[in-house]
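Instructor's aside before we start: the two examples that follow are unrelated to each other. I chose them only because their records fit on one page, so don't look for a connection. First example below.
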Amino acid sequence: MTVLEIVLAYVVLQIVMALLMAVFPRDEVMRNKTGISSFTERPKTVGEYFFNGLVVLIAGGALAMEYINKRIVKRPWWWRIGTRVIVLLGVIALIFISSVLIYIFSE
């Protein structure tokens, strides 16, 4: 396995995590399964900073989507659905572009 494949696998993991949080916003069970319930918003110790770094590595995409969900929570329902659909379409476009690039560079 090359470094590029490892990086791409990591990016795909983060995209999947963001997709999960877009489809299941504010779902406590999903938060616990993805590990982002462990994130400390205002860390005070070095250990908390280190642990937050691990959480970002594991569930960074979910944290990003949670941030988007928090920002759009007071918007009308159609705005929230539209924002999540745009994120999902962006993810699909990103996957398509990366697939094309992998195909081009693999030859």
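Example two begins here.
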Amino acid sequence: MRLQGAIFDLDGALLDRAGASLPGLDPFLSLMKVEDVWMYLVTGGSSAQARRVLDHSGLSPFFRGILSAPEHGVSVTAPALYEKAVRRLRTALPATAVFTAREDMVPVLKAAGFPVVLVGPGHPPELQAMADQVIKDYGAMTRRVGG
């Protein structure tokens, strides 16, 4: 099934600890947009703060919306938050990948039926084996999709 949508976890899956975009992120998001993959953001903080972060980093145009876990009364690790993003994207759950750096999210998302892309280095081998894709940064994804 072709990728229809992507949900990104703001914490660690888009920006590094200093607030800079992860390597290769901008070209990857541009390619996803050209390929008509709709994207949503999930955050453990407020949607207003997430919007400021996206605006500051120039990433706002890539995302159709933001879901804030506290504003919806759930944990950022609750599958219901990601399922709500799928409904808002109007995509099929199996064709909507979740990009996360949160190790605790991999088994939760897999159990809910999501394809999972584990972002960043240093994850335990058992979680890497559970994820559908493991990437150190987005440069590898751009080369894979575009090349």
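The chain is about 40% helix and 20% strand.
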